[in-house]
Amino acid sequence: MNFGLLINEGPYNHQAADTAYQFARAALGKGHRVQRVFFYNDGVNNATRLTEPPQDDRHIVNRWSKLAADHGVDLVVCVAAGLRRGLVEDNVAPGFRISGLGQLVEAGIESDRFVVFGD
Amino acid sequence: MAQVAEALEQEQDAQSVVKKFMFVNRKAPYGTIYALEGLEVVLISAAFDQDVSLAFLDDGVYQLVKGQQTKGLEVKNFSPTYRALEGYDVEKLYVEGESLEARGLREDQLLVPVQVVSAQEMAQLMEQQDVIIGF
Amino acid sequence: MLHIVNKSPYEKNSLTSCLAHALKGGALLLIEDAVYGATKGNVAEGAIRRALADLPVYALGPDLEARGMQGNVIEGVKVVDFGGFVDLVAEHRTSQSWL
Fold first, then answer.
1. For A45, which of B63, B107, C43, C75 is 20 to 30 Å away at the CA?
2. B44 CB-contact burial (10 Å; exposed 0-12 / middle 13-18 / buried 19+)
3. For residue range A47-106, what is the model confidence (pLDDT) as tens digits?
4. A116–C89 C-beta distance less than 8 A
5. Does this complex have an ipTM over 0.95?
6. All structural domains of chain B
7. Which chains touch C (3 or more CB pairs under 8 A)?
8. Whole-number Å distance between alpha carbons of A47 and A12
9. Is B82 touching A (CB cutoff 8 A)?
10. Nearest 5 degrees, angle CA B134-CA C3-CA C6?
């Protein structure tokens, strides 16, 4: 089955990004496809390459990048929400791309199941 | 809006599929950004020729209250955008009657024509959707 | 429909609102802070027990465990892991997150 995910909260402040990641990993582990993860609202902060958590903490941004590299998950950051929060091409981590809200609607249309993670 | 133009292009690829999208609004405006950025998604979705509806329940009904004045806060008053939805062919706005009543609001205090439905009717409407996005 | 709730019943009315819109044939999944609602003695215990008559109720195990609540789950609530979460989403045509 093909999943689309929407993440509306930033990393560390709220559990949404962790829940979504664990969900995506479990879905892939079961042989499903995660076509796209769309980052909106403060969720765009999941994509900043400037993130440096303490060494004993999970690296939420790198975890997403690895998911994209290993499984071809399309990580899309909303351009408008990103600009509002200072997120541009220069500071997005590998595996993320910046695009429009149309990518969110398209994921809703093309996926078999669409799940929202937020506050 | 540049995003609308881009969305129109993407729409060419996806236009054969029509899904029922419902955007569920349960949060008040201004205290958080969800109402405003949620509305931006609604506007983009209109470019994809999908079957789009909006649901307002719980504190989400406060988004539609007439007379919003944001000068004192120096933030954008986005409430006129709800009136513009019709121009985007987004015409299904469902407001839950129980939520209005619980907040001492009447339909004539809302800034745009809506369809007031009961919680039970709202539940049925939700059941008919293909994609439900809540902010 | 799979209804997903992530708020403690003391923080917000999401669970109450969700249950007012959940139809037979659907299911309820409690995640994140909502798992407190699946535990005995919580303000939502009565509502969860009544809901169980009409629809299956699930709670996310890793969230219960992280909060030390795994031993206090209301009888009838099924505990699932992330794989179970994925299965629930797959089994239902749509999901709705009551944020």
1. B63
2. buried
3. 999 999 999 999 999 999 999 999 999 999 999 999 999 999 999 999 999 999 999 999
4. no
5. yes
6. 18-134 (3.40.1260.10)
7. A, B
8. 13
9. no
10. 70
